[in-house]
Amino acid sequence: MTRRREQARVPRGAVLACALAASCGSGDPYDATVLAAASLSEAFTEIAASYEGRHPGAEVALELAASSTLAAQVRAGAPFDVLATADERTMADAWRAELVERPEAFATNRLVMIVPADDPGEVRTVEDLARPGVDVVLAHPGVPAGAYARRALAALGIGSAVEANVVSNASDVKVVAAAVSLGEADAGIVYASDVTPALAARVRVLPIPERVGVRAVYPIAAAADPEHPRGSRAFLDLVRSPAGRRILAAHGFGAP
Amino acid sequence: MRTPRFVAALAAAAAAFFALPLIGLVLEAPWSSVGSALLTRQIARAAALSAVASTAAVGIGLALAFPLAWVLARTRFPGRRWLRGLVVLPMVLPPVVAGVGLLTAFGRRGLLGGTLDAIGVSIPFTTAAVVIAATFVSTPFLVVTLEAGLASLDRRLEDAAATLGASDARVFRTVVLPGLRPSLAAGVALAWTRALGEFGATITFAGNLQGRTQTTPLAVYELLQTDAGAAIALSVALLAVCLVAVVAVRGGLFREPR
What we know:
The structure holds two protein chains of two kinds. Chain A is an alpha/beta fold. Chain A is built from ten helices and nine strands. Chain B is globular and about 65 Å long.
């Protein structure tokens, strides 16, 4: 009952979105609405530019937010073509709800610790995060980056000590990077791929020991009911192509 | 001029635009489990923090707004328009911009960061930051209503009281303050509800931590991603509180001075 009503709502929402965007009438079949995890921001922005170069006239609408935020939007009936999340659980939920086609892993990522360049909290190792008085910012536990970070800290046996130092549960991993790069927090845990040249200029990157073994796996899937079926297929193909993989690798992502 | 029928129809459509989101919230709320959805530790802490922070923001806001409103309403000086623009700017500023601005002013690396650090104070990610963010966005409502109230007072009453030998303090207490009561009540209600609803500046400047900086709107945003039913239930509760505040102002407190 709820389900049918929600599905009935989608086309109306799409019509309204079209009316507001005023671009649907002249839309290109290769347009694509792509929802991607915040940590994919730079890589997917570049892939989208490459896509638009291959399909002249087509436009990629890219929405970048925490995977859990994107999943909530998809559940609420937001129109989209491709969903890429930073963890398999969020994607599995969307798949079970029959909102996406069968997902496929396309990239991996690892965690690093960042501290402001002048290191006000004197954080040298991951164990220092547990020292009282160190202001730590993590992504919210409901966000993949926050869940991975907590899994790593728990594996190191400092989960609750660090939790006591957490001053903010950021809404997505990019907010963690911002808090540290502005010097407002003493340390944060982000993905290796988040350390862009701009961020690297403002922070120091410290490793999280390999033995923790936290490896983020990124799945991607086409919408079950895509707005632009051709665009959906073509964008997915590009992400999984050698060209797409090259862009992902250049931004610090590993192969699945 | 009589009201043309199409104007009434357009007004009805406009009213529907405002009513539909509220109706949607009420219809979608999980009424059967609304009690258990709202009676969680997270929501209790968020509600308590919101109530305290909004009230503190209005208290501080009154101390800031009274002198500003007085100067704006009763004195003439170059740059008065600019001062008024500056003071009401937070009403129209995107709240996230307000949050970034607060970081650049009161953050650890902000303009006052070094000074604050010297006395051992760090504001971002603290409850104090929640109050500062709420004060920043809500005080303009107090300034605007108090300035309008001061401007509408009949100055002759004050002059008469003074002529009869009343001191400034007595004139303020017995003539000005009673005359200001309606605008004061309206300003307090508007500022308090604005502070209660503050989101963007708060999450930017104060972060999001249960029990310390997670206010009710931040809890709604977080719950929306994990438990949409609880998020809607909490939204309805916030809606009810705001409705009571607005209706109280229009109905009881905001009576026109006789």
